[in-house]
Amino acid sequence: MKFVTAILRPHKLDDVREALSEVGVSGITVTEVKGFGRQKGHTELYRGAEYQIDFLPKIKLEIAIPASKLDEVIEVIINVANSGKVGDGKIFVTNLDKVVRIRTGETDQDAL
Amino acid sequence: MKKLLILLALLPMTVFAEGLNGANTSWILTSTVLVLFMTLPGLALFYGGLVRTKNILSVLMQCFAIAGIVSILWLVAGYSIAFAEGNAYFGDLSKFMLSGILEGTVHSSGIPESLFALFQMTFAIITPALIIGGFAERMKFSAVLLFSAIWLIVVYAPITHWVWGGGWLQNMGLLDFAGGTVVHITAGVAALVAAIVIGPRNGFPSKPMPPHNMTMTITGAAMLWVGWFGFNGGSALAANGDAAMAMLVTHISAAAGAMTWMFYEWVKFGKPTALGAVTGMVAGLGTITPASGFVGPAGGLVIGIVAGIVCFNAVILIKQKWKIDDSLDVFPVHGVGGVIGTLMAAVFASNELGIFSGQGLAEGMTIMSQLNIQAIGVVATFTYTAVATYIILKVVNMITGLRVSEEEEQQGLDIVSHEEKGYDL
Description:
Chain A has 112 residues and is α+β, with helices and mostly antiparallel strands. Chain A has helices spanning 13-22, 70-81; strands spanning 2-8, 29-35, 42-46, 49-53, 56-65, 90-95.
């Protein structure tokens, strides 16, 4: 099993969610996050004072999937979330040791 | 018989006090509501949105507490010092606890004196409330209260006496229709002095401290615009052409100030900001205030445009060049606006400027001679306020201390001073 964490542009979220549903991903967790990478921040202007805002709003997506789905999921995210500009985000993949569905106690593949 | 009927019809009038004018009274009743609305919630929201999330409640609370404490002090002694007879500098205490003001007591303007005292009370409330923008986000709540209370009695009430209560500036012929000197110069200068004495917020100017809620700020600013109709229009103390003209020029100046600031910023920094537009509006309103009962519509337009340009540059100068943390820009907007408005009143009050004419200067006055008086008024209120505010702050510092600790400032005044949070989202 794999655990996929993706950092995305906020306005790409709906498209990504839809595309993931189409390839059979049955659940995702979404968090509004802030951070910086190569895109850096942006400036804001208040009464003539320009502030450098270092942390930009992004969306963090967390998905637990069977290892067999990994390539497909990555491909879907790359296709949909890519705008070609700096700041499109990143995908992190880690191994997932165990999954439990709280309601039934089912584990691993059954719980995904 | 017919005569008797007319007499009977007039009879109910006699229950009113002699000299009372119902039309004037009803307009000043309305204006009083509008001016209180400027502070609560107008100014509170305008300022509240400009600070950081952790300090929102402290700003709202300071506005509320000042409204409370000033109202009580105005009753006790403030009104008497400002408006009772006395000498050229202070009223005496003959109106201590508003004594002698009964239901039927009529002010010389034909409104009940109780109403005049209340109307003026709303001005006394907003002036120290304006000052909190200078020391926002770092002053102890106890110090804010003590400072505001002493300042009202030592600075606001006497200067009001000088300008409106039969004092020396009024006798000299100073034109200040609704408080360019009394409200805006005093508040602006006090905020500047307080910002210098207390020192900048931790991290200023290198750390960004952007406004936390622009929607709140713009909502409050919009309330200020509406409330200002009562502030300036009500200062005619009558429901007449003076009041109407004051409202018209006030509105024009607000619009011109907003648009000037917006376009200026657009050209200079590339974007027209909402905060810029509303700040220009407040600058236009503050600047027209002393002139509002004396100038015409075209004069009001010029005053608004000048306000937008001058106050914009004043903000940049004070905050970015001089690095004085007058946190919510009280001095550059209100203080500078009050100064230039008081001076421009002399010019645009003249009835010899063609389309830019106002209602005319007093008999025997020229623009230059009036300008001279206005300058004396500006320098006197500026200097007295600066010196007195400095001394008051030093005294308050000895009693309560002025600032919260660095750690408390980091944590935010809402929790530290009030054990509450503005938001629980």
